[in-house]
Predict the 3D structure of the following.
Amino acid sequence: SEGVLARGKVVYDKQCAICHGEKGLGNGKLIIREDGSEGAYKAIPPAYADRLAPMKDGEIFHSITYGKNLMGSYASQLSKKQRWQVIAYIKAKQKAAKATAAHAADAMATK
């Protein structure tokens, strides 16, 4: 529902965007500062978007709960409900981005 997505966005913006970026591209302020210089982590992981997009909801939940690679656990910061709200928000953003890309490709094909 819209309420779940709105709550997911609030949590994402507060807890996730610092690393994952506003659009989920892995370019948050800890990776790349606003002035363009390197942040605390030196680079966006290779193939970041390619690995994240196909992850199933349960895999994302597990990553948020227990951590993955450089990302630590957020089990103590986010309730289970908040984790699922964030996942719903992420998946909705991915779906919207995919639809926008498909629409742009269709528009280019008809030119």
In short: The mean pLDDT is 85. The radius of gyration is 15 Å. The helical segments are 2-20, 48-52, 57-66, 80-109. The longest helix spans residues 80-109.
